Amino acid sequence: MHNHSHGDGHTHNHGHGHGGHTHSHTQTKAVLNRLSRAIGHLTAVRTMVEDGRDCSEVLIQLAAVRSAINSTSEVILKDHLEHCIVDAAASGDKKALDELNKAIELMMKS
Predict the structure, then answer these.
(1) CB-based contact 64:41 (threshold 8 Å)
(2) What are the residues whose beta carbons fall under 8 Å from the beta carbon of 99, sequence distance 6 or more?
(3) Enclosing H/E stretch for 64
(4) What is the value of pTM for the model shown?
(5) pLDDT tens digits, one per residue of 37-51
């Protein structure tokens, strides 16, 4: 494993542990906040279903959950592109690029 810094306080750890290389994400707090909102929406949907609420209302809330998840994915993707993928391209790390392509394919199918 080796570490390197970008001079802007952003440090990467590259190793071969769980899930490939690791690095400091700059948007972790934003991602966690968005996930908390999505979980809150989903919990509300569950309560609505348990309470027998109108299907149209449930579908509208499910659309809000989907939107929250999509926006969270967008934040993660941008962070990944700006940090991991820039480093991967600079170092010729084809595996990281292949993994990103697979992730994008799966995201597009959902």
Answers:
(1) yes
(2) 20
(3) helix 55-80
(4) 0.65
(5) 999 999 999 999 999
